[in-house]
Structures are given as structure tokens and as C-alpha cells.
Known about the structure:
Blueprint: H1 2-18, E1 31-39, E2 45-53, H2 66-75, H3 78-110, E3 117-125, E4 128-135, H4 141-147
Antiparallel strand pairs: 1-2, 2-4, 3-4
Amino acid sequence: MPKYSVLFFSLLLLSACSSAPIEPEAYAGQFKDKFSTSIKGEGIKLFTYQAKVASATDRGIEDPLPHQQRVNRRRQDARSYAIEQERRQERLELWSEQVDLGLKKTIDMTGYCKDGYMVLNRSVSEGRGEVRGECNDGATEEDIKKFSRNY
């Protein structure tokens, strides 16, 4: 009986480790982002934040050919395909969190929106994200000098 309890607890521990939630920081170094600014004549500060998962080439990884990906997918059994599809939603939620985190860190780092911002449009799909927004504060002379060059 003790052998079975050791086996049971080992499997329990293993499943707990494998189901641990992935943090948004797990994407560190695996995506590219771009922050564009626009200051209108009335002092309105607009921005666009775009992020995408870096391609295998960007990360220095050999990317399998699309044909090989299709072959591998056909070899995959139905059960593992169903599990992959369930995880797809989890990955999309994680990616969405990463886009939000990247925007927040970019805003904090640049100091563009001192009093926060409101999102005007947000579009996130697997591997891509774009947020357009407007700062709650108006542009100062310093902001115009610093951000007119389209960050």
C-alpha cells in the first residue's frame, strides 16, 4: 500500500506543477512592441501601442516549414488536439495580459500619460495586439518637445 500512496502523491505533485498558471512575464524577450505618439493642436495626447510575438527568426530559432507544421498536426491524435484548443483560450488571455502589461510599462517608462489614460480602441488576437488611447492629461510644452518626434 505505501508504494501506491507514494505514486499517488508523486502524480499529484507533478500535476500541480504542470497546471501552475503562466505569468505574463513569461513572454519577456519573446515579443516586439512599438509605441507611437500624437499630440494634437489642442494639447490632446493620443497614442498607439502595438505588440506582436517575435517570429522565430527574430528570436534566433529555426522555424519549421509550414508544410512540416501541417504534417505534424495531422499526426497529432484527436485528444491532444482538443487539449491544445482548450489551451488556446488560456494563451489568448495570457497574451492579452502581456499587451496590457507592456503598455503600462511603456507608459510608465516614457512618462507620456502622467494622469493615466483611457482606451479608445483595443484589439487583441493570438500573437498580435493593438491599443489606441488618449491621455487624461493635456500636453505641456515639454511633452510637445519630447514626444513630437513620434516616440
